[in-house]
Amino acid sequence: MSHKTLDTLVMMANQIARNMMIQGEERALPQISEHIRLYWDPRMRKAIDAHLDAGGEGLDDLARRALTALRDERAAS
Amino acid sequence: MGLIKEIDFGTPASKAVKMVTLTIDGVAVTVPEGTSIMRAAMEMGTAIPKLCATDMLDAFGSCRLCLIEVEGRNGTPASCTTPVAEGIVVHTQTERLKSIRKGVMELYISDHPLDCLTCAANGDCELQDMAGAVGLREVRYGYEGDNHVFAKQGGAANDQWLPKDESNPYFSYDPSKCIVCNRCVRACEEVQGTFALTISGRGFDSRVSPGMSEAFFESECVSCGACVQACPTATLTEKKVIEVGQPEHSVITTCAYCGVGCTFKAEMRGEELVRMVPWKDGKANRGHSCVKGRFAWGYASHRDRITKPMVRDKITDPWRETTWEEAIGRVASEFNRIQDKYGRTAVGGITSSRCTNEETFLVQKLIRAGFGTNNVDTCARVCHSPTGYGLKTTFGTSAGTQDFDSVEDTDVILVIGANPTDGHPVFGSRMKKRLREGARLIVVDPRRIDLVRTPHVKADHHLALRPGTNVAVVTSMAHVIVTEGLADEAFIAERCDLLEYREWAAFVADPRHAPETTQAFTGVPAEELRRAARLYATGGNGAIYYGLGVTEHSQGSTTVMAIANLAMATGNIGRPGVGVNPLRGQNNVQGACDMGSFPHELTGYRHVNDDATRAIFETLWGRPLDKEPGLRIPNMLDAAVDGTFKAIYIQGEDILQSDPNTTHVAAGLEAMECVVVQDLFLNETANYAHVFLPGSTFLEKDGTFTNAERRIQRVRRVMSPKNGYADWEITQLIANALGLGWAYAHPSEIMDEIAYLTPTFTGVSFETLERLGSVQWPCNEEHPEGTPIMHVDRFVRGRGQFVLTEYVPTDERTGARFPLILTTGRILSQYNVGAQTRRTDNSLWHEEDRLEIHPHDAEQRGVNDGEWVKIQSRAGETALRAVVTDRVAPGVVYTTFHHPLTQANVITTDFSDWATNCPEYKVTAVQVSPSNGPTRYQEDYDAFTKQSRRIATAEAAE
């Protein structure tokens, strides 16, 4: 995974979070997770999970929490 | 199969409901009130002689040939300008009429050349027909007197004579054959709305005059062809008809340029296309055309066209022509090898928005069922993917709500980020017609597009916003509507989710969305915005038309939803004259989306993770489908650079030129082990290809296109494919080389499969299209004849959803290094990457991309009109020539992206829409400085292209 691709994924996740944020956290969090689940290819999700495990540098708070929830949900299933 | 001759009723149809009965030549006929007597007669099959009348134009009453007699009325009125009345008794042929008509014709012919046998209109001349119809046998006046016919008169030059004007590349103007019927002038005004033509002089001196007696090419003429179509003689004639002769048969088909989807008669002589003439029954174009569809089809036989498959091992090698067998075998073995080595998901493909629905469907089927991955995407990614997302979220359907006819009932037109007179010219003309009838106009665009001020059209409000602030502007309009109490509460209560509306209303009412607040960063004066919002909310039927200026932003999807909010809040949904109308860029971009070209969706916009939907496909196709979404185009390229994506099959799409950040696209393509390009020409992407499969044009295959109004229309083959196969056949060859065992014999069988698999298409078949001409989806049991207007009684999703649309500025910021904003667009004569139009004479109108820059910015930088400038962004730099103009605001520069040498996308960045990754073409921070010529990059690229396009000559067969 190149540095550049990871930057793109972080930027994408943050963008989604920033656009969903206005709905309020309670509604935004599941919507961010759902958006990424619906539109990201598995290798992108795997890469962002790995990045999350490594500290998730650059991720906004809301994006980070949504991605964590998504990762945990998958780990549980 | 003969030549389709449309009936000319002489005057337009009346829309009146009340019927009137009259007697014509002893026969009772009932027609709508307001119908002309000429039309009423034609309805019963009686053709009253006429010259200046034609049913595309309003009655004019100048030729004096269509005279009739009405019992109890004096004189011989013109039947074109006399409306029917209850109980009148009309005679179309009496001794008196016969004698008058003969006299009139005699005068016409006395000033007309008698070279009928060698005339290009021979066989298609209304003057000739009328001379025959009135029984003209002699011209008593002779040809010795004043005339416009002969260059010399009695040995001296004839001042009345004018030479032919051959300046337009597609048609010629021969003034000596003009009968001054005014049809061309009226077509230019009424149909096209350009007002390029007039009649100069009076009486015998009257002449058709382009502009101020200029040559056609130098005048304001946009070469739409309406005048040529209207001309009853050989005065205005297609050069191709002059060269070839009259066509002998014709076939109805659909234009392959923009998303308007005009219907044409392809008029043929054998397999040679003589001309394309817009078909009056075409429901998208109603008999009109533009310079692209009407004339720019010569690319189909251009010498650059590749007709044999080619392969090469490395992209630095020259191409080697080969057999279809070897080329297809190479694709199959390479994709198998790569999937064995790198995994199933290391390959993918791109469907084409220029190919047919059937072809697009097969490509995504090949990728999903054959390759076993959902790595399929389409160029809608880079144009209208936010429309799909935004309208599905708010209304429940990923498409526009109206048909084009709807504009005829519109009172207020709101155009946002679209330039219809350039990008969608035929619809632009229909829009202008409505505006001339009195509809009001609001334009939201950073640039002063033609529609803002064009003959007899003036926008009431032009909100010249700063690029990238769409969401703020549209939300501010909502603020005004809500806070000034202009919302349609009854509609909202009945049709929308009320709780969501209340939350949204409170959100937009917040002072931070007030135009007085947002004007600081949008640049739109608050009072102007308030007045525009009031007009949209209260001016009657309000219709929103938008284009890529809405979608190609980091908040493209948000703007689409903000637009949908605006329409719902004002009750402008679900009837003629209103709605939310995306103007789609390419001929079949709507279709490509409908056909399941997106990596997360099967046909009819159903997500791949839906088990029930997948099961239907798996059962029919006999192959397992992946439930995970695949990669989008930009992510495919990222994955290629990362080494996890190795092979791609691209049908009819030039991502290297059309997609943003060219160097990144090139790096992605270069990293792949097998790039397969299927196209008409060696396009820019093919520079990086290993296999080239020659494609076919829309003239060479059967199928369907779906236009911006969801209208599915037939494309019909008029000539054999020069490359040997239609594109769907090539995809089938690949599928079968991979062992899929497909056996489609005709595209109609593919459409049957689409209909079986897709709930909104169950009523669609080639037979339906044959019967109805065209049909707008949804077409199923509920709507057997299709759906011109959507969301009539309820929204597809149930209740309309209001979405909160917060303005989030793009990360692409201007600053000291890059102080200007570059935004991009299109021009009338060229189309997309120009692969087709650049290979026609359309290039005479637009030889190269130019950079528009405001005089203030130009002066600061020492940039002069017509000189080369270098334009730099964070992504790259390129050079082109400048046009200094105040069409753009200070701080904004603008260019088109039709030419590969310009490489406009070297400058555009990786920023994209948050929801769909639609690239942010419309906002790039740049600096502009004077330059001597092309940049080093452009020169290198040009050399690379030449190198890459070499085709090895076959060895001598000894």
Automatic annotation (TrEMBL), chain A:
Pfam families: FdsD. InterPro entries: Formate_DH_dsu. It comes from the Bacteria. This is Formate dehydrogenase subunit delta. It comes from Methylobrevis albus. The lineage of its organism: Bacteria, Pseudomonadati, Pseudomonadota, Alphaproteobacteria, Hyphomicrobiales.
Automatic annotation (TrEMBL), chain B:
Pfam families: Fer2_4 (PF13510), Fer4_7 (PF12838), Molybdop_Fe4S4 (PF04879), Molybdopterin (PF00384), Molydop_binding (PF01568), NADH-G_4Fe-4S_3 (PF10588). InterPro entries: 2Fe-2S_ferredoxin-like_sf (IPR036010), 2Fe-2S_ferredoxin-type (IPR001041), 4Fe4S_Fe-S-bd (IPR017896), 4Fe4S_Fe_S_CS (IPR017900), Asp_de-COase-like_dom_sf (IPR009010), Formate_Dh-H_N (IPR041924), Formate_DH_asu (IPR006478), MoPterin_dinucl-bd_dom (IPR006657). Gene3D superfamilies: 2.40.40.20, 3.10.20.740, 3.30.70.20, 3.40.50.740, ADC-like domains, Dimethylsulfoxide Reductase, domain 2. One of its GO terms (molecular function) is metal ion binding. It comes from the Bacteria. Residues 18-96 form the 2Fe-2S ferredoxin-type domain. Residues 248-304 form the 4Fe-4S Mo/W bis-MGD-type domain. Residues 169-200, 212-241 form the 4Fe-4S ferredoxin-type domain. GO terms for biological process: formate metabolic process; respiratory electron transport chain. GO terms for cellular component: membrane; oxidoreductase complex. Keywords: 2Fe-2S, 4Fe-4S, Iron, Iron-sulfur, Metal-binding, Oxidoreductase, Repeat. Residues 96-135 form the 4Fe-4S His(Cys)3-ligated-type domain. The keyword Metal-binding applies. The keyword Methyltransferase does not apply. PANTHER family: FORMATE DEHYDROGENASE H (PTHR43105:SF14), RESPIRATORY NITRATE REDUCTASE (PTHR43105). Belongs to the complex I 75 kDa subunit family. This is Formate dehydrogenase subunit alpha. It comes from Methylobrevis albus. The gene is fdhF.
